[in-house]
Write a structure and sequence with these properties.
Length: 356
């Protein structure tokens, strides 16, 4: 159930067990017939037929945006299936959750209609379930639904945030990764960020197992570092720094592979004082040589970054990092000039007051 986010709000998740890409391919006649059949079966009173329809909907919406639109009317009956399901009817609940998840991927209207249909109440109950399958599916569902800006505050109001943090502490590896990304989505709403910080999720996020044993774990933190609020970016760089400090030779390459350098460069100039310090420390650990350089090669930020860039594979990442370095130097010069102007203004004001 690998997941990834594509923007600051992780606008859609891509779960390999659930859904993959979202191509806008035309629906062939055979698919149109299958869509009509699925819509008919999902209305049946027979639970076995409902499960069959949910599985068909999941399959049809896996790669087709058009099918997601055509099957939008299935949202309400699928949500009703969630309400009927419980720990004793895992197949019913799981098939409905996975169908809803695929319907929601890269479809803002479906994301909103799923929440409006009342899906959050059963999804939240599944987060508390003793069944690991239902917990994992529910976490993945919240990840996708939380990508909608309209849903963020509604999800928070259900009490989902403490439960997601609990998944970080006690869930399986993929559920932990999805929970990190869902919290990242929710953190873009200011009220939600306060709630998240009060739950102190960072020790759980820093778990080396959660971040590195599943593809997308480190990437999720890098995306928070790049796109989160100032406070969440500070926590994210701290998490990566802790990870690299624990075993530099093991975690240096996985961190670099996720393209962390541009975000770190930006933090060294525009982050909070703590973020700047942590970003600089992490850059030092990420460079090729783990020990301080000689006086002939001073330990300046530019030298550290240039060394790292020389080790990065791929022209695109290297070019982006070089561009960010140039911008960083420019911003640094502008800030230094601003500070000089402020000092000059202070001295001038002081002298005028003294003369008087």
């Amino acid at each position: 159930m690998n997941s990834s986010s594509s923007s600051s709000s992780s606008s859609s998740s891509s779960h390999t067990h659930y859904s993959t890409s979202s191509s806008d391919t035309d629906t062939p006649p055979s698919s149109s017939a299958a869509v009509r059949r699925a819509l008919r079966l999902i209305q049946s009173e027979d639970l076995s037929l409902k499960i069959e329809a949910a599985k068909d909907i999941r399959r049809l919406t896996k790669t087709s945006q058009r099918c997601r639109r055509q099957l939008a009317d299935a949202v309400k009956p699928l949500v009703c299936m969630l309400r009927v399901g419980d720990d004793d009817s895992v197949e019913l609940s799981e098939s409905a959750l996975l169908a809803l998840l695929n319907l929601a991927v890269k479809d803002e209207k479906n994301k909103i209609s799923i929440v409006e249909a009342g899906a959050l109440e059963p999804i939240i109950s599944f987060l508390k379930s003793q069944n690991s399958i239902l917990r994992e599916c529910a976490t993945a569902s919240l990840l996708t639904l939380s990508a909608s800006s309209i849903n963020k505050q509604v999800i928070s109001a259900t009490g989902a945030i403490p439960l997601l943090v609990d998944i970080l502490r006690n869930g399986n590896t993929q559920a932990k990764v999805d929970a990190v990304m869902a919290l990242s989505n929710l953190s873009t709403h200011s009220n939600n960020l306060d709630i998240i910080l009060k739950t102190n999720p960072i020790p759980s996020i820093v778990s080396r197992t959660a971040l590195t044993s599943e593809e997308g774990g480190i990437l999720a933190v890098v995306e928070v570092l790049e796109n989160g609020s100032l406070q969440s970016r500070e926590h994210a760089v701290g998490a990566l720094l802790t990870l690299c400090q624990s075993d530099r030779f093991k975690y240096r390459e996985p961190i670099l592979r996720e393209g962390v350098i541009p975000g770190l460069l930006e933090l060294t100039v525009q982050g909070t004082p703590k973020s700047q310090s942590k970003a600089h420390a992490l850059l030092c650990l990420l460079r090729d040589a783990p020990y301080p350089r000689s006086e002939l090669q001073p330990d300046t930020l530019e030298n550290i970054v240039c060394n790292i860039i020389s080790q990065i594979d791929g022209d695109e990442q290297s070019g982006k990092a070089k561009k960010m370095l140039a911008e960083m130097v420019q911003v640094s010069m502008e800030q230094s000039l601003k500070q000089l102007q402020q000092r000059a203004l202070f001295v001038t004001s002081f002298l005028v007051a003294f003369v008087r």
